[in-house]
Amino acid sequence: MLNGGSLPFEYRKSGPATDIALKEIKSLYSELFDVNYIYKDAGSQCSENGFGAIAADVYYSNRIDVFIGPGCSFGVDVIGRLASSWNLPVITPVGTNADLADKNNFPTLTRLSFSMNKFSQMYLSIFRRYNWTDVTIIHDVIHSFFIIVGDSLMVALQYAGINVERISFDSSQNDDTGIVLKQASLRSRVFIVSCSGDTFREMMLIANQLGMTTGEYVFIIISLFNGDSLGDFSWRRHDSLDKLAAIAFDSVLMVKLRRPTSDSFMEFERDIKTRASTHYNYTLEDLEANPFITSVYEAFMIYAKVANETISNGGDLRDGRAVTQKLWNREFRGLDGSFKIDNNGDRNTDFSLLDLDGTSVEYKVVANYFGLDGKLVFNDSIEIHWPNNRGPPLNRPYCGYDGNDPRIIDGSNSGHGASGLLSFISTCFDDNMEIKIKNKMAKLTLVTTKHLFELFLHRNQRRENDIRSNWWRIETEDILIRKFISRSIHSIMSEFSLSKSVDKHSSTSNDDGLLENTAIYKVSRVIQL
């Protein structure tokens, strides 16, 4: 086990849990077997170096039956492969790396803490609820945990069918997180972030400057537990930027390991703090007994239970694969009720989803993910406070990630005419751009109305001018009067029946309509007189 440093499972923090477990095991099983515990100091740094030599020394020098630990994923990788060849079980309280889930390579490995595979199940439950399928993982590289998050979630989410990309940065080199955010915005609106608390606050302040905290984006940060080595993930630093930070953090959701609430856990936590102070010269008074410490205790307890079953049934404790199978796909009693180790040897972990309360501006649990059931259960009394009450961000903006790929919005969503266009604009641009475009459209509408009114006046004036121009009047000297014979059918029939001759040239009678005076203007008959 690592000793010293800031990792949450190092020996000064996990040693008290070991002492409590050994005391209980002796109380429960002393008549059947005794426990000889060997502690090996692996230094303070989490790396592959040294773990293999330590494991080999213990294996060949002592007749051991099981490895409890290490916590460091790199160390678990080394010892897990060696233990497989030696056929010895390995129970790690941590070992979160996703690669360790491949039990073809680690057939005797059992993991009691969260794994990134289980973490991904929590994320997938959130993504399914809000139809988010395009995700970007943004992580720092200065801490092994941040790298593990990036590597592991990338693999797990890709396997689940999420369209995921990863962007890393180095805060120790003052990498520009603004550039990182702009790059991420070109492909998604949902960001999983893994970095220290101070770095995250700086990132959110930059996001606020870039206009990314109005509700179009969501930032999901991983904070394992209060007092972890990752830092303070609150917005408050009691400085001049607190007000802006509080606004920016309205776009943040936080994922944490669910904190147990049972009486047995509270008693365990008090005992841990007392032992850490009196036996390990380490103060845990203001800190929580984190889940890794709890898992150290539970690792000893579940192995003792299986060892008791194996010995009672005449089995061989040194048959690591047989012992391991007794641990897998099974429920055990823990400090906070029952927990299950799945058929792949990984614990089904519980997580909490937190959001800033709109009134107190403090993080509140809005949902819990229960690993035993694989369900995300939302709090009936506390809802997520989305920025500007816009609701959850769309997976993909209507105009695309870069604003140059507009969708066709149907009439039911956008309306018709100018109101529909304004609705379309409101989905495609940020608030400032939306106001500018609406103002431009208002001016354009005013100008267009003015031009139409002027056109109407011009046409009306032209019509009146045409009327006043007398173009339709005809001068009398331009009219010719001609006489035309126009014999009606009645007249002709009368002429035949009476055998009556008519002097066509002298008659001026119009009784039968035979003679007409007609006005002619430019060869056209105009009017009858």
Automatic annotation (TrEMBL):
List, alphabetically, the PANTHER family matched. NATRIURETIC PEPTIDE RECEPTOR 3-RELATED (PTHR44755), RECEPTOR LIGAND BINDING REGION DOMAIN-CONTAINING PROTEIN (PTHR44755:SF8)
Keywords in alphabetical order: Glycoprotein, Lyase, Membrane, Receptor, Signal, Transmembrane, Transmembrane helix
Its membrane topology is listed as:
Single-pass type I membrane protein
Task: Kindly give the InterPro entries that the UniProt entry links to this protein.
Answer: ANF_lig-bd_rcpt, ANP_Clearance_Receptor, ANPR/GUC, Peripla_BP_I
Intracellular or extracellular location(s): Membrane
Query: Zinc among the record's keywords?
Result: no
Q: Name one GO molecular function term.
A: guanylate cyclase activity
Question: Which terms in the GO cellular component ontology are assigned?
Answer: membrane
Q: Where is the signal peptide?
A: none
Could you tell me which residue ranges the Receptor ligand binding region domain spans?
15-358
EC number from the UniProt entry: 4.6.1.2
Q: Which GO terms describe its biological process?
A: signal transduction
The source's superkingdom equals: Eukaryota
Tell me where it mainly resides: membrane
Q: Give the protein's recorded name.
A: ANPRA
